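User: Hey, quick favor. My workstation is busy. Could you predict this chain's structure for me?
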Amino acid sequence: FVDFCLVIVDLVMMLFLGFKIVLFISFACPKETNQRKRHPRWGIVIGDW
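Assistant: No problem, here it is.
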């Protein structure tokens, strides 16, 4: 049971880290003429914040 909880926490942390990376990419990349670009893996609109 403890191992199961640890695995769940690890997955949540990985997802959170991925979301932070996506946010960082969206803020770091320059906005090119208000054009939306979808990230292939997460499907989050980049540069439209």
